[in-house]
Amino acid sequence: xxxxxxxxxxxKSTETxxxxxxxxxxxxxxxxxxxxxxxAGFSVVxxxxxxxxxxxxxxxxYPGARCDVESMQYSYQFxxxxxxxxxxxxxxxxxxxxxxYANHVADRYDLLRDxxxxxxxxxxxxxxxxxxxxxxxxxxERVTAAFCVTAMGCLSSANKPTFExxxxxxxxxxxxxxxxxxxxxxxxxxxxxxxxxSSAIQAIPVIAEQASHLFVYQRTPxxxxxxxxxxxxxxxxxxxxxxxxxxxxxxxxxxxxxxFNFNDESAAGVDERRRQEEYEARWAHxxxxxxxxxxxxxxxxxxxxxxxxxxxxxxxxIVHDPAIAELLSPHNVIGxxxxxxxxxxxxxxxxxxxxxxxxSNEPIETITPKGIRVKGEKYEVxxxxxxxxxxxxxxxxxxxxxxxxxxxxxxxxWQEGPRTYxxxxxxxxxxxxxxxxxxxxxxxxxxxxxxxxxxxxISDCIEYMRNQGRRRIEATLDAENAWVxxxxxxxxxxxxxxxxxxxxxxxxxxxxxxxxPYIGGFPMYIEKCEEVVRxxxxxxxxx
Length: 543
Ligand code: N01
Fold this sequence. Notes:
This protein is an alpha/beta fold. It is about 30% helix and about 15% strand.
């Protein structure tokens, strides 16, 4: 089996290079997929649209970008040497530090030789006669592989709403998800940030310190909990490292695959004093573990409201102007949209150089050559930051013209919403695997362990195929339908499915409203995947 890219990749569009597996994307999922498959003796090529590894951490370089999962948990665990040799510097790692980690992994495992950068895949077609996929890139390069694995991330396709007049704007326009690698210095500039989701909430306090004036255009306020970020105490870091296997194992047994203190009392079952005590402790600790304060916060609307009101009371405490505090106060279910984690977000609105512009009732009217007009009022700005999020979970896959052997498109199959078996495969699309796709816990969990679980499942499956002398695997329609039904049913019992979030595609006009990730929890999901394997790949046709 040839093993180096130099021998393999067609340099001319007329040639087609041949591999066992083609992986799309070189973020954490694609990198580990490559490593694992190569270890198993397969020839692999990774096609990556960007010019470097890191995926989300390659593209999202906006000021203040950090991971909201603690650094000691947001890393690979497949190699003990790797997790022992790397030292995170802060409780929450910055984007540059995570990108350095991704590059360290790429170097350590010599991954770059099998990754093609600046290779955006545009088409992928399955040929039934050979049972192989052929992938074509924007530049016209072609590779063929027995299996295709997508590792394109859940939040990788930027949402750029069409604001009237945007093209006429004479200043710079940035999207948080496509930040220039060289960075942007806003010193002395008037800046307009559109959006107040996780990305904006991290970027706004940093931009406010540089800009001469910052205007924030808010359509819907979000709940955010202080990160309480700090340098990692070396003793604590070493203590976790000494116990890493147990630490990781405990995390895997939690709903979100994250090791944090979950309180198994219900908010409805305790008195006001006890609730306040718990919320205060969680607010002081910081981060997303706030939602672990009580076990019914995502199941009982009244309980949820006690947590929501607690955060609103904090906003009123922090923000000096009561009218601004009220505008910043969300009134929907807390945790329904992804909870944000910040450093100094609410206090930023006390700065004299920051103006909050409410666009909840009347949308941004137009972008002019010199700025942004809202309700007839003109805001002159030098730069616009679109912190408008992503067309989540489906758009990256739909951006590639996937065609099965009958010439049917994946985008047609998903017209009414995504349908998968375990978020890993799709009926009608043989030999195609998707990492952290709709129907898997993905974005509701710590992505790293979720990615590792998917990669290992896919790699084991491909090895099994080889060992059994099988060449074609396809999820049955029955198995897929049953899984989609189960995913929908569990979502229905959770308050998270009740609001207009990107989880349900509500941020993209016309997108079918479907709760996309699997909300049954990481342990239940792992058990189901393992059960399928124990059953000889139950729910699949192998031939
Ligand atoms: O995107 P978002 P994001 N006019 O969709 C507004 C992960 N992440 O990039 O809510 C005006 O949350 C939109 O308003 P509304 C994390 O999973 C993680 O911030 O639709 N405003 C909203 O305020 C997160 O959930 C980390 O009314 C418009 C904002 O733009 C996910 O990425 C950090 C508009 C978009 O918010 C996405 O976060 C960052 C319009 N036409 C991100 N269109 C960490 O790990 C949209 N908006 C910490």
